[in-house]
Amino acid sequence: MSSLRVTKINTLIHKHLAEIMERELSLKKGVFITIAKIDTSRDLRYTRMFLSIFPEKETHYVSETLKKELSRIQKNLYAKLSMKPLPRLSFEIDKTAESADKVEKILKGLF
Fold first, then answer.
1. Mean model confidence pLDDT for the chain
2. Within a 10 A sphere around the Cβ of 78, how many other Cβ atoms?
3. CATH fold for the domain made of 3-110
4. Hey, which of 11, 76, 84, 107 has its CA 20 to 30 A from 4?
5. The pTM is what?
6. pLDDT at position 102 over 80
């Protein structure tokens, strides 16, 4: 499987998931989700979606909401994709911003 194909599929899935989550997912007021990265396996059977959540204290709430809505989100995605196999979705919280903040605090402490 070409990595170019996987990259194109990641872009397509990202686009459709962003639309679906914006339109279909109802969250508390003031809670925002950003799709940080999409990672599809080379065999196209699994897609991991890395999410940034703001504010960070709502991470548990968003995780629980996504668990409840996963089958509906997946069904809506499958309706938009015309490919086989259809990837199974999983959500993960992107810790990049949190890690960068810790490193920044450490660096500030050095000076």
1. 88
2. 14
3. GMP Synthetase; Chain A, domain 3 (3.30.300)
4. 76
5. 0.79
6. no
